[in-house]
Amino acid sequence: MGRAAGTGLVFQSQRGGKYNKRTIQKIVKNASLNGKIGKNISPHTLRHSFATHLLEAGADIRYTQQLLGHKDLKTTQIYTHVANRDIKRLADLL
Questions:
Q1: What averages of pLDDT result for each successive group of 10 residues across the chain (94 residues)?
Q2: What pTM was computed for the model?
Q3: Angle value at C-alpha 36, between 31 and 82, nearest 5 degrees
Q4: Among 79, 44, 76, 43, which residue's Cα sits nearest to residue 60?
Q5: DSSP string of 42-89, one letter each residue
Q6: Which letter, b or e, does each residue of 15-47 get, where b requires 16 or more Cβ atoms within 10 Å of its Cβ?
Q7: Helix (H, G, I), strand (E, B), or coil: what is residue 31?
């Protein structure tokens, strides 16, 4: 698995197509069980973690907003649970 050239897919099925929603949920659940994580992990959890790590690493919140497909910046701020100090720091840049 990996980015399938020219398709825009991050992961590609064995048949060369797009995974359906349920298959992705099963893959993530099995990976969390095999990894003995001990928490309920979902594709949404991965999305949330990715966005949070981007912001914590200093990524511009507007880029993160675009990656997540949020129309309103407030949605990105709430969704990623950015610490108030980080939001204030970003607001000070404006």
A1: 60 85 92 89 88 86 91 83 64 73
A2: 0.65
A3: 80
A4: 76
A5: -HHHHHHHHHHHHHHTT--HHHHHHHHT-SSHHHHHHHTT--HHHHHH
A6: eeeebeeeeeeeebeeebeeeeeeeebeeeeee
A7: helix
Please give the Cα distance from 42 to 46 (Å, whole number). Answer: 7
Rounded distance, CA 21 to CA 83, Å?
31
What is the number of alpha carbons within 13 Å of residue 23 lying toward its C-beta?
Answer: 8
Identify whether the C-beta of residue 48 lies closer than 8 Å to the C-beta of residue 79: yes
Give 18's contacts (C-beta < 8 A, 6+ positions apart). 9, 12
- Least Cα distance to 51 among 13, 15, 77, 16 occurs for 77
